[in-house]
Amino acid sequence: MSASRGFTLLELVVIIAVIGILAAAVAPTVVNQILDTRVSATQDEAQGLHEAMVGAPTSDGTRFGFVGDIGRLPSSLSELASPGGLPSYSTSHIRSIGMGWRGPYINSGTSSTDYQRDAFGRNYVLNSGQVRSYGPDGIANNSDDIVYPPSAPVVTGTVAITVKTISGGKTVVDPNGYRVDL
């Protein structure tokens, strides 16, 4: 009589039960790790989009972002990747001051709209210089929203204007009666 080889039904049920228990124990950890990775990626992307808008801190102070070149916050994220109807960058003849779109200010990724979606596959929302993702649950304005920066940036600047005119062979600085409107 030859001995048959293989597992009994009871042994197979025990093995499947053990694998199921192990999978149930490991699955929440894996799901949480994936969620944490997506949250971290979204935080990094939101910070990158914000820096594209207002500039990133650099040691030489030369990255001014969209605001520094255009003079306002972008009305949509697409203005960071494409100039649309914005004027091209040019340098004026006075003090070599440049102004205009000289982007792209962001890497648009593998498609033209990658940068507009968070790691959860939903569009970022741009509001007063803040970049918002509705977070893991996708519900607006609750505790899991990812917002960068935490408070809306205040975009201000100072323009100093000096009016010089030559009158009778003399240079007159800031003569009476001149008005400059911006």
Biggest beta sheet summary? 3 strands, antiparallel
Number of strands: 7
Give the total of domains.
Answer: 1
Alpha-beta classification: alpha+beta
Number of continuous helical runs = 2
Instruction: Enumerate the spans where pLDDT stays under 50 for 5 or more consecutive residues.
Output: none
What spatial order of strands do you see in the largest sheet?
3-4-5
Rounded to an integer in angstroms, the radius of gyration calculated over CA atoms is 29 Å
Q: Output the helix-strand order.
A: HHEEEEEEE
Q: How many angstroms does the end-to-end distance come to? A: 104 Å
Give the proportion of residues in helices: 25-40%
Key traits:
29% helix; 182 residues; three-stranded antiparallel sheet; two-stranded antiparallel sheet; 12% strand; 2 helices; rod-shaped; alpha+beta
Briefly say what this structure is.
By secondary structure, the protein is of the alpha+beta class. Helices cover 29% and strands 12% of the residues. A three-stranded antiparallel β-sheet has the order 3-4-5, with helices on one face. A two-stranded antiparallel sheet has the order 1-2. Strands 6-7 form a two-stranded antiparallel ribbon.
Verbal overview:
This protein is α+β, with helices and mostly antiparallel strands and 182 residues long. The chain has one domain (9-153). 29% of the residues lie in helices and 12% in strands. The strands form 3 sheets. A 3-stranded antiparallel sheet has the order 3-4-5, with helices on one face. Strands 1-2 form a two-stranded antiparallel sheet. The radius of gyration is 29 Å and the shape is rod-shaped. The model has no long low-confidence stretch (mean pLDDT 84).
